[in-house]
## 1
Amino acid sequence: YKQKRYADAEPLYNELLERQEKQLGPDHSDVAHTLHQLGWIYTELGRDADAEKAYRRALHIKQACTPEVHDVLVTLGNLAHLYVKQERYVDAEPLYKELLDRQDKQPGPNHRDVAQTLRQLGWIYAETGRDADAEKMYRRALGIEQTHPPEVEDRLATLGNLAHLCFRQERYGDAEPLYKDLLDWQEKRLGPSHHDVAHTLHQLGWIYTELGRDANAEKMYNRALNIARSSPSQDPAILTTFNNLIVLYFNRRKNSEAEPLCIEALNIAKRTLGPDHQEITKFESYLRMSRGL
């Protein structure tokens, strides 16, 4: 198991489970521990139905016993995460709420594990159209994370989720400081040329355009494009940034600056999307417009 040799570990744990059930009884805490390990193994092997069955049995035993609190928390979290992975948000929500309730009592309401659970609940609420609840979860998580020495990955995830939520609601004034904070963290943690930095710059460019701050938008889009140009393999998703900057130039009557971008975007589209893609038709049209044709 420790070596991640799950196919080798599975029959050993199954044999252990059978012996424990005979010698200790089917509701013993050691049986629950073995079922939990099997749940993890089945998840790693892509056998989600078996994982769910093992986790649910383990959880039932742990909740019936005088619980080792951490033990219950881990199984609850793993089963809830399994449901999120399967997009079974209705099943995941009550598990995360129970997990949150237990975590608030122990290890306490300001623990970083509580922040992680709040972020997961925020994701569930966002995915099920409950944006106000999602924002409440994300903001509470962010408040907890800011009181601890930073776990950078957690901070990036929470900031990104909350920023995207505000962006999706077209609350650009609220989204801007979140994306700026996210950008600052990404540049420190990932480096200024990381593709996640380019994505955040793109989002800021969009926000500045919507807020009428065209000079700021141009700067963000150009920075995002420069990161993409330095990448050995160009993601066709960068064509959205080209599109937005070209349209920005057209709106500002800067056709001469739009033209080289049209050519560059057209070449990327042909190379990454194939000769018949609709993006090619669009950028060909843009190129004619940039030349006044």
## 2
Amino acid sequence: ALGTAAPAEDGTVASGYQPSGTGISDGSTAGSAIQTIRNSKSGTYYLTNDIVVNSLTDCTFSGTLDGNGKTVYIRYDSEVTGEPGVNTELGIGALFGNLNGATIKNVKIVVETFRYVEGSAGTRNVGIIAGDAWGGAKIENVYVELQYSPTSDGRSYFLDSGEHSGSAWSGTKEVELNFGAVLGKSGSSDAAATDVTLKNVTVDNQTSGNYGFSAWIRHGDYCNYKVSMGPFVGWVTGKLSMQNCTLRGGESAKTKIKKGGSGGRTTNQAGAESGRIDEQNSLTPRLTRGRLGMAM
């Protein structure tokens, strides 16, 4: 309406804003604030200073995190060692693994370093804020800035399928990877608990290098890969409402998936074509049994 200020979408808050809940900061130990919130699994928290996140998690959070206009710096670069016999679905994220009715708001997230390498069979939903969300989860007034650039050894991929080769992987197994700069997946198998809202959310892709916001699908001698990537959500299975969401970065904002690698291939043991290789280069993520409501 005329004379009404535009809603914040950069993670800032108005002067005089008073958050509620328990104030928290890293203090002298980087990564301690987010670990405290993860361990609580619920509750209402607000940041009193900028914090650092230097680990990933599969925890489920059902409380509220109010960034209070502060910045969260993501600094994670590590390989995950998987097991051929494990065939499960996990939500894995930089802030939280899963959001069950949780609210994340009023925060800027700067991704300085992020690289997830998978080595297990099964499904991995990987996101910067959370791997999966359901149950009325809300993400509001959040700005995600992707700064990740190639490292000294040339690695510049956010998501790496890992190496699935050798006798331990004999027999066809499936690896499904869903990745988004906000959520890896939205929705659950419970139709009554799938509503998720993204409101006033911006993804600003400032990555450099040949692949930028990207995935590398490596050795697939014994696996069939299914990969979905999106700048907001990799895979939507329930009802997702996106209101006033913005993607910045032009051509560089597009997701990119590179198949193969040194001696690898993205086929299964029988030589069939790999499964879903799905790049989402717009605001609209891939839908499976889902509904998407958008208000720009």
## 3
Amino acid sequence: WDKMIATIKSILLQEGVYYEIVIADDCSDDFNRKKIDEFFKYNNFFRYKIIHLMENKGTVSNVYNALNYCDGSYVKFISPGDMLFDKYSLRDMYNFALKWNAEIVFGDAVYYNNKNGIKCVRTYNHPVYMQPYKDDEQEKIEFFNIVMGDGVTGATLLANKRVIKKYIEPLLGKVRYLEDYFVKLAILDGVFIKYLSRNVLWYEFGDGGISTSKSNEWKKALLLDEGNANRIIVEYAILKNKFYTKYLEHKKNKYFYLKYFKTLIGKFQMLFDRSYSRIEEDISFVEQCFGQGN
């Protein structure tokens, strides 16, 4: 509850942009709609919808279902415990998307945990190799995303609703948790993705989140999901007659990166020109969301 409220507060604090909130619950045991309604009423906010599924079908199905309730043309996913970075994050992402006519935009995340007080965690970004995005090199973006597996963190995205729906559909019934794989399919199809060079998100690290959790159970589930998702990617690449299909066919081999000069160079670029998350000293916005500080 506390994490969800902190996340919602980070949204309610947004300025300079018109938005709605759609809460999509995937059959949680402790879901309390009345309590959420009371919270919104207390904050005098009424542009929200609540969807509570009676069966847990995983994140991919939950997200796809929630899109049917979204009125806006652009959608921002955010999970309990993650927070928008500051009061202009949503405005800046939306305006950036409109300015560049980009159907998918993303920014940087600051990783944090709140186990013993709010602390930033330094780790490498996703994508690790940022240069193709800074240079708008679509072919390289595609290569590093699809072949090298250097994808964008889904939590940092803002995307066109139509695009999300179109590219999540192939994942339905085959992938449960990796909803951000829709980005790979979109990039494969030539959808324009644009990088906003600014922090847009406080990303909870290693404390219950799917992608950063250390639970062995989650790791096994994600590994299975990743295998299913990658098979879909390979099928799509073959269908589109992509030049790098030969690389994907050998990707399971542990010497994959050594087999081709292009993948070897890509690996070196990811190792020696990797991008790291910033250590943010000003945590006042996070404290405000959690009800701490002044």
